[in-house]
Design goal:
This is Phage portal protein. The protein is of the alpha+beta class. It has three domains: 42 residues, no CATH class; 243 residues, no CATH class; 76 residues, no CATH class. Helices cover 47% and strands 11% of the residues. The strands form four sheets. Strands 4-5-6-7 form a four-stranded antiparallel beta sheet, with no helix packed on it. A three-stranded antiparallel beta sheet has the order 3-2-8. A two-stranded antiparallel sheet has the order 1-11. Strand 9, helix 10 and strand 10 form a beta-alpha-beta unit. Helix 1 packs across helix 2 and helix 5 crosses helix 8. The radius of gyration is 34 Å and the shape is extended.
Length: 479
C-alpha cells in the first residue's frame, strides 16, 4: 500500500478494503491466466534458468528411462522404427556435381565401395547406411550420438568412422589452465566446442580413469539444439516417455485381468470335514491351508468348511482398452511429429484423403530429419572422404586444391516415398511435368532415384527392345 492507501485506511478501513479489491480485480483483467497463482494453477511453481541448469540434473535419468522403454516397450519401438524406415530407409544416394561427368562416376563408385562395413567402420561391423540408421535411433533415445574421424591404413582410403555414445564423454573433467570444460567438452568464450574428452576403457571394458582428448575438427556430435544456452543433448523422447510407460502399465493390468477372467476354475465347499480327516493338532493345522494361492485354467480346489469366495471383478477395462490405447498412441505419436497410423499400422479409421494428408504431414517431419542428417553428418563425412581419397591417390584430381569448393559440389537423394494411389500420383506428376510445374529431377528424387540413371536405363531398354523387334511404350508400329 502507498501513502494514500494508508491514509484512507486510517480514516475508513472499509473504503481502503474496497480500493484494494478493485485494484486486484483490475490487475486480473489485464494479466495472463497462465501467469496467475489462483487455485487452478495451485502447485504449478516454475523458475527460469539456463538450458544446462534445466537439463543437467535430469539428462542421465531421462536417457536411462528412454533406453529402458526401448528395450521393453513395443510402442516406443514402433515410433523409433517409423523414423528409421522413413528417414534413412535403404540409404541416401550420392550425386557428385563436378563439371566432369567421368569424374562424377568415379567418385560415386568409390563412395559406394567406401560405404561397405570393412571400409567405413573401424570395427568392420556396420555399413554407412546402418550407421545412419543408428544415428536416427540414438538421437531419438539418447539425445545424441558421436562420430569420430579415424585415419587408419585399413580400407580403400585412410579414413573411417568410430561411433561413441554420449555416455563416453568424461564428465569428470574440470577446467584447468584457463580451459573451460563442461560435461566433458572444452568450449571457447562463444560456447563453440574446441575439444572432446572421451573415457578410456581397459581390456575388460571398465573405465580406466584416463581420458582421450580429441580436437573438435575430428568429432561429429549429432544432437539438436533447442535453446541458445543449450550445450549438450537431451533425449527427444522426454515429452512422451511418461505417456508410453503409462500405456504399458495399463496394458499389463488389463492383460492380467483378462487372463484371470478367462480362467475356468471350480471350488468345492463342504459343510463337514472330508471323510478320514484327523482331529488332532496336525489335522487342525492342515485344515486351514490350501495347495495353491493362484488361479489357473481348469483348477479344481476344495475349500475348508465355513470358507467362502469373494471375487474382485473390476469392470470395463477390456471393453474400453482399445479406445484408450488408441488415444494414447495418437498423443505419443503427435508428440514426436508423426501420425497414429505411422506408428500403429492401423488404417481402419482412414480414407484415401485423410491417409494422404497424414502421410504428407509425416513426410514433412521425415524431411526435417533428413535435412538434419545431410547438414550435420553426410556432408561432413563426404568432404572428409573426398579429401582423404585425393591425398591417398585413390582419386587423381590435379587442380583439386585450387578448385576444392567446385570439386566438392554434390547432392544427396533421400530414400523415396511411396504413395497410397500410384495411378493418381503418376497422373498428377505427368500433368505437372507437362505444364512446367515440376522437373524430372524432382519427381525422381521424390522416389529416391537419380533422373540421369532413369534416362540412361530407359534408353538401354528401348534400344534393346528395338533390337528384339519389340515396340516400346509410347511408340507406334511403322509397318
Amino acid at each position: 500500500m502507498n501513502w494514500l492507501d494508508k491514509a484512507i485506511a486510517f480514516i475508513s478501513p472499509s473504503l481502503a478494503y474496497k480500493r484494494e479489491a478493485w485494484r486486484k480485480a483490475y490487475e486480473e483483467l489485464r494479466n495472463y491466466d497462465a501467469g496467475m497463482n489462483d487455485r487452478l494453477n495451485a502447485g504449478w511453481r516454475v523458475v527460469n534458468s539456463t538450458a544446462e541448469q534445466t537439463d543437467g540434473a535430469y539428462r542421465d535419468i531421462i536417457r536411462a528411462r528412454a533406453r529402458d522403454l526401448e528395450r521393453n516397450s513395443d510402442i516406443q519401438e514402433s515410433i523409433i522404427g517409423a523414423f528409421e524406415r522413413n528417414v534413412v530407409g535403404t540409404g541416401f544416394k550420392l550425386q557428385a556435381k563436378t563439371n566432369d561427368e567421368e569424374l562424377n562416376a568415379k567418385i560415386e563408385k568409390l563412395w559406394k565401395e567406401w560405404c561397405k562395413p570393412r571400409n567405413c567402420d573401424v570395427t568392420f561391423q556396420q555399413s554407412f547406411d546402418e550407421m545412419c540408421r543408428m544415428a536416427v535411433r540414438r538421437t531419438k533415445i539418447d539425445g545424441g550420438i558421436i562420430f569420430i574421424k579415424r585415419y587408419t591404413k585399413d580400407g580403400i582410403i585412410p579414413f573411417s568412422l568410430q561411433i561413441r555414445e554420449v555416455d563416453d564423454l568424461d564428465t569428470m573433467q574440470t577446467g584447468r589452465d584457463g580451459k573451460r570444460i563442461i560435461n566433458g567438452i572444452e568450449y571457447n568464450e562463444f560456447n563453440r566446442p574446441i575439444a572432446y574428452y572421451f573415457k578410456k576403457y581397459d581390456v575388460n571394458g571398465y573405465y580406466s580413469g584416463e581420458s582421450e582428448r580429441i580436437e573438435a575438427n575430428d568429432v561429429i556430435f549429432l544432437w539438436k539444439k533447442k535453446r541458445p544456452s543449450q550445450i549438450r543433448e537431451m533425449s527427444e523422447m522426454a515429452p512422451t516417455i511418461t505417456r508410453i510407460r503409462d500405456i504399458n502399465s495399463y496394458m499389463e493390468a488389463v492383460s492380467v485381468k483378462e487372463r484371470v477372467a478367462a480362467c475356468l476354475s471350480v471350488f468345492i465347499r463342504r459343510q463337514s470335514p472330508a471323510p478320514g480327516a484327523s482331529f488332532g493338532r496336525q489335522g487342525r493345522s492342515s485344515s486351514n491351508t490350501y495347495e495353491g494361492k493362484t488361479l489357473s485354467p481348469g483348477m479344481i480346489m476344495e475349500l475348508n468348511p465355513g470358507d467362502d469366495i469373494s471375487v474382485v471383478n473390476p469392470a470395463g477395462q477390456g471393453a474400453s482398452a482399445a479406445d484408450f490405447v488408441r488415444l494414447q498412441q495418437r498423443l505419443a505419436g503427435s508428440g514426436q511429429g508423426i501420425s497414429y497410423e505411422a506408428i500403429s499400422r492401423d488404417m481402419s479409421q482412414v480414407n484415401y484423403s485423410s491417409a494422404r494428408q497424414g502421410l504428407l504431414e509425416d513426410q514433412k517431419t521425415y524431411q526435417i530429419e533428413q535435412k538434419f542428417l545431410i547438414d550435420h553428418l553426410l556432408t561432413e563425412v563426404y568432404e572428409t572422404f573426398l579429401i582423404s581419397a585425393v591425398l591417398s591417390g585413390a582419386l587423381n584430381i590435379k587442380d583439386f586444391w585450387n578448385k576444392k569448393k567446385e570439386y566438392m559440389q554434390h547432392e544427396w537423394t533421400p530414400p523415396g516415398m511411396k504413395w497410397i494411389d500410384p495411378l493418381k500420383e503418376a497422373t498428377a506428376n505427368k500433368i505437372s511435368l507437362e505444364t512446367n510445374q515440376t522437373t524430372l529431377a524432382e519427381i525422381a528424387a521424390s522416389s529416391g532415384q537419380d533422373w540421369r540413371e532413369i534416362i540412361d536405363q530407359r534408353a538401354k531398354e528401348i534400344e534393346y527392345m528395338k533390337q528384339k523387334g519389340v515396340i516400346g511404350f509410347g511408340e507406334t508400329s511403322q509397318k
